[in-house]
């Protein structure tokens, strides 16, 4: 039940063109229409070997392989089909793009998404992609939120949908080999199992006690806080009655069972179920007044949508409400889960992701949900990642994934424990790096964030646009350092805001030795009348000189100081020497080796302005100066 349609047998995901069916494809089509995809693939491939394949056959094979998660073969058959069919639907291009994404062919994926967007420009998926065509690289650069470990209770069959309650782990498995084989993937029908916690490891897996498991599929579940009631998914089968719609399709329903003497009994069909569509994947709100679920009922936005229904005090139910286009897309949204903070988690292949189904979360806001956020890798991968449940109190959850191939083209669902290693809430920080002199964007600048303990948290490089995108825990303090060859490094301290932030960093170019010499020769500082102390504005100029000297350790300088023409020759000589010494002392106190410095006072012997005919105060000040000379 890793995908809702595995149990519900959704027939609306792909529209099958009938014009290419013929007597040769009749057997294969029958398997396909019954959702027996493994046998359908074998039958269509026999037609290829007999030279009876056409575009229709390639499309059927592309879809069947995609549904069985054989993305490599799906890609190849889509290529054959699309190469010879310019009238392919937008959905064909989208599914082809998803196959490429799962095969990690990112540039080809982007091209296919552009084709899809051209055919369906108003589609929410097209709009989202065109707004951020490089989202994949951004998702891959996100700081991992979770650390994953595969559970030892996984079997050689499909295992998924872990739900921890009261120290036990409930999950779905196809390991009961006595069940009828399911034509979709040639595995036994799914049952609900429960495992004990033995020293921190879940063991002793066994079928849930009671009347829940049948010869048909059972699916994901939710248990009330007191443990007295369980909501679960099952094929439309109750009291021996296996029902199909008018097209012969058996759908999914959500049922309720009651705990009686340690056994779940008294199975009840919920009133908002229907024989003509599916409801599945129940999830209870923290206060148990609402039940979230997924459904392909009429009036939705896509193949399956997320809904919520009120549970009234008397145990009756209100009318299901669609969660709307912020959450739902034209594709599949399923496996909802609500944590204690009313955060919604779910899986989707309609929002921008890493491939297949990805897990997203959406924060609650005044009864609605904010735009969903992808939880990034390693929780998500290029395969199907789904059925995520999470307990914020212990910062631990479970996710299911078919990311591991048993052999080429054959994937298996497994359960992984997900431990939170970095805060769930992250903010996107854009660091734009430019040349301070020219405003030119600087590519390949190094961007490093250090946490409050000065441990390196993340590092990246700017792209051709001079931008580095980083994801950091919201509300925490960091030091940002930007480094670039031939530029002065810069550091900035900041607290990460809740919303995306752009930080522009202008780096000062480092000087060449010749440029440094020229600047030194141009440098001078000034003094108050009859005073040798370093003025504040002079200190600022000396700080610039110190930077130049530190960048150019091969340069040695001589400080030459002067006075104005007032006062005796002897006094001015002594005053100028004190000015020179104070200038040198300032440089030494701020990190310049004294061996690189010499000084000389010249009194009033070399004025800038001759005052034989009198000088203004400004002209006198220009004479009271320290100058700098490069020496060997």
From TrEMBL:
Say where the protein is mainly found.
Answer: membrane
Keywords, sorted A to Z? Cell outer membrane, Membrane, Signal
Q: Specify where the region named Disordered lies, as residue ranges.
A: 598-632
Identify this protein by name: OmpA family protein
* UniProt biased composition (Basic and acidic residues): 621-632
The source organism is Psychroflexus longus
- Signal sequence, start to end: 1-22
Taxonomy, superkingdom:
Bacteria
- List localization entries: Cell outer membrane
**The OmpA-like domain covers which part of the protein?**
514-632
